[in-house]
Amino acid sequence: MAEFETISKEHLVASPCIHADETGININGKRHWLHGTSNDQWTHFFPQAKRGTEAMNDSGILPRYHGILCHDHWKPYYKYDCTHSLCNAHHIRELTRAWEQDKQAWAHEMKQLLEKMNIAVNDADGILPHKEAETWKGQYRELLGKAEIECPPPDKPKAVKRGRTKRSKARNLLERLIDFEEDVLRFMTNSCVPLPIMRLKIRFG
After folding, report:
1. Is 137 among the domain residues?
2. pTM of the model
3. Per the CB 3.0–4.6 Å rule, which of 55, 77, 127, 142 could disulfide with 71?
């Protein structure tokens, strides 16, 4: 078992693209976190009492990794020195929620746009020519412009308060899609980054 763990870690560290996520689990009645790292051939699970960077460092994978790390935008992942790609499976779930629960029309349109992008990427054998990718990016930005009108940031409170003004879930999602465009759309220009499905074999998040 120890030998397999060592081998799996080395294969993941050497992989051009890996996926990371975590989920809460119960061990002997106590809350723990199951950290998962995977590619299309190897999966490494690491239970830990802690959730953050300290716990992920203990697994011995992410601190040594310098390829493309696909994740759900949890801030501690951005502390690692690698290229980042945001998991659009998470985005599609969030967009579906924003449309079905918050009636955000832009979210429904964005979900459809990402799915069309994915079809185009698959038809192009996993990577789009630069010109075609830029055309899709133009549609993406145009839709986000419409979304800014439908889902504006909250008004600033008249009283001075410390910290960031609270945003809705839909607004937080919109700002992420705007601010991290390159990481969201990396699947169009890098063949090892998928759009719709994380390679972890259990559902996280």
Report:
1. yes
2. 0.87
3. 77
